[in-house]
Write a structure and sequence with these properties.
The complex is a heterodimer.
Chain A: H1 3-9, H2 15-25, H3 34-50, H4 61-69, H5 76-85, E1 87-95, E2 98-107, E3 111-119, E4 139-142, E5 156-158, E6 163-164, E7 169-178, E8 187-197, E9 216-229, H6 231-240, E10 257-272, E11 280-281, E12 287-296, E13 304-319, E14 322-327, E15 333-337, E16 348-352, E17 357-363, E18 369-372, E19 381-385, E20 391-393
Chain B: H1 3-11, H2 16-37, H3 40-57, H4 66-88, H5 94-102, H6 114-129, H7 133-143, H8 149-156, H9 160-180
Classes of the chains: A alpha+beta, B mainly alpha.
Chain lengths: 397, 183
């Protein structure tokens, strides 16, 4: 048998394996970093605190959602930006007593947010899963990865295709579950984030306007599940390795991660964003900063090594919901990140003219995208503060 | 459009079936073809051939999962096209790397007969079913979809070295499984 026979032989494996791997490729089963888990937990906790009082829906949904992300109140400029750019939608679909209502969208040309209200049958308490005591307890998850699913493909399907290797882009989605504060336990909000990213970080993305006015999206929500860890099995593993440092191998972890299907229904929504594509470029002359740089450690490219090095930033484009970074390539590198991994208190911030700060989280497949916790009003931006202390000043606009 | 609606169009012999298939799964099929062929024109031809083959096989076939049905067809057609092309000149892309990696799993048995192919499929399914879901997905990303290590790393959240070592370990398991089954 030749290797090509084996490669061809894989063509006949079970459909369910092929579909599951495709979902994995689409990022539906992407693992959350600890930092992101804590961020989500913080968002949920803050939201619960804030929604104890009546929510002023008249102000729009995103004012509520962004307020919950920040310990400080939104500035009047931020509220103005949200009010000017939020698109109230109001598309509602009911399937088998489960209703999904696309309430509202907002987009800055690079990142799109959509807020859905999920209404379960009256006897289903969704809110109990919003603030699990630990990350191992039952929590809501959009999508159904079980074998009995009715459909299995990406959540967001742009009319121009979700993936394009030639033009070097793919659309990725993620989402946070938050309380809607209406006092009904069977209703919650799902805030979906859609971004368009480069597939190969070393090549340009040949898609100028990922969320342009002529680009419509079919947003497909497929099933809602509860994900959790089998704590009994967890205890068995811990007892087995008591007193030892251990890594749970894949086989040993089989059955550790569980999911229960709440509904296997599918809802489809057609969306066209209406963003004004504002951005400002902060790099007008060569700028260098400290960064974590990864390279292969051996010829077979099995191991990697990292070091702190000075890198040149060739572009730092800030939009209201974040920033995109481009580096001048360094020889043999497989990754560059402005997250220095030194002190967990070190973060990247947008510092505004009134000295308030907006935290920026590195995200994206190649760590070249920054996601702002709350909108950056570009006219109010003073500078971006990097972890190594470098300041990238905004031009006067 | 729902998959069952598209299949119904195929059964009605409506050319709209091709249009709807392209709208819904064109990008998906193209990404599979491109990972194998690394060439835009060849990939587009493979996707067109996929539509034509789907037209000729539905009916009588009524696939349970249209996406997997189209994906397998695209992969088969693209590997076939790659073989013909590489008979003339050795092409590049992930398929060469994947084949080099899989070389360590195989011996010199003949799998030309249909029976042998079915038996190989059984062994491969048994091997995949023995893997935890994440490892199975990583393995199939590499050897079914022919995704690069970098792409798998980005999608999985694992480092490239972890993906590489995981694949190395899984290839070892596959080699053992094939050996046990007499391959």
């Amino acid at each position: 048998m030749k290797a090509i026979d084996l490669l061809v032989g894989f063509n006949s494996v079970k459909d369910s394996y092929v579909i599951s791997a495709e979902e994995f490729r689409q990022g539906k089963r992407k693992r959350l970093s600890t930092r992101k888990m804590w961020l989500i937990a913080a968002v949920i906790a803050l939201t619960l605190l804030l929604v104890g009082c009546a929510v002023a829906y008249a102000n729009g949904w995103f004012q509520q959602i962004f307020s919950a992300r920040s310990e400080t109140p939104l500035s009047s400029e931020q509220i103005q930006y949200i009010q000017n750019n939020e698109q109230i939608v109001g598309q509602s679909q009911t399937k088998n007593d489960w209703t999904v209502d696309l309430k509202s969208t907002i987009c800055d040309g690079r990142t799109g947010y959509l807020v859905f209200q999920i209404t379960a049958p009256d006897d289903v308490d969704l809110e109990q899963y919003l603030n699990p005591p630990t990350l191992d307890d039952k929590r809501l998850s959009m999508g159904n990865d079980s074998a009995s699913r009715k459909a299995a493909y990406s959540l967001a399907v742009a009319s121009i295709g979700t993936v394009d290797s030639e033009r070097n882009y793919w659309y990725l989605d993620s989402g946070d579950w938050i309380a809607d504060g209406d006092g009904q336990p069977n209703t919650v909000l799902f805030c979906m984030t859609i971004r368009c990213e480069k597939m190969d970080p070393n090549k340009p993305m040949l898609l100028e306007d990922p969320f342009g006015k002529d680009v419509s999206f079919r947003i497909r929500l497929m099933g809602i599940t509860l994900e959790y860890k089998n704590q009994e099995l967890q205890r068995e593993i811990e007892e087995k390795y008591a007193g030892q440092t251990y890594i749970v191998d894949g086989e040993e972890a089989a059955g550790l991660f569980c999911s229960d299907i709440l509904t296997d229904e599918e809802w489809n929504f057609d969306v066209t964003f209406d963003s004004d594509n504002q951005f400002i470029e902060l790099i007008t002359k060569p700028v260098f900063a400290q960064a974590k740089v990864w390279r292969y450690a051996d010829e077979k490219q099995w191991e990697t090594e990292d070091s702190l090095e000075e890198v040149q930033i060739s572009s730092f484009r800030v939009t209201p919901f974040g920033a995109n970074i481009t580096f001048v390539p360094k020889s043999d590198t497989i990754g560059i990140s402005l997250d220095l991994w030194q002190d967990t208190d070190d973060e990247i911030y947008a510092v505004m003219k009134d000295e308030s700060r907006i935290k920026l989280d590195l995200t994206g497949a190649d760590a070249t995208i920054l996601q702002a916790q709350t909108p950056i009003v570009l006219s109010q931006l003073d500078y971006i503060l990097l972890e190594d202390g470098t300041k990238l000043f905004a031009p006067n606009i | 459009m729902e998959d069952q609606g598209i299949i119904a169009l195929f059964f009605k012999r409506s050319e709209q079936a091709i249009e709807e298939t392209g709208k819904k799964y064109g990008g998906y099929c193209y990404s599979i073809a491109y990972n194998i062929l690394s060439n835009r024109e060849d990939s587009e031809e493979s996707v067109s051939d996929t539509y034509l083959t789907a037209w000729n096989t539905i009916p009588p076939r009524r696939p349970n999962f249209l996406n997997a049905f189209l994906a397998k067809m695209t992969r088969h057609i693209s590997i076939d096209r790659w073989r013909k092309r590489s008979a003339q000149k050795r092409g590049g892309g992930e398929i060469i790397l994947a084949l080099d990696e899989l070389e360590e799993c195989v011996d010199t048995h003949n799998v030309e007969t249909e029976l042998a192919k079915k038996e190989l499929t059984r062994v491969l399914n048994a091997f995949l079913s023995s893997l935890p879901e994440t490892e199975r997905n990583v393995f199939l990303c590499r050897y079914w979809y022919l995704d690069s290590i970098q792409i798998i790393s980005e999608v999985s959240g694992f480092s490239q070295s972890k993906v590489t070592s995981m694949l190395h370990r899984l290839r070892g398991k596959l080699r053992k499984k094939l050996s046990e089954e007499g391959y």
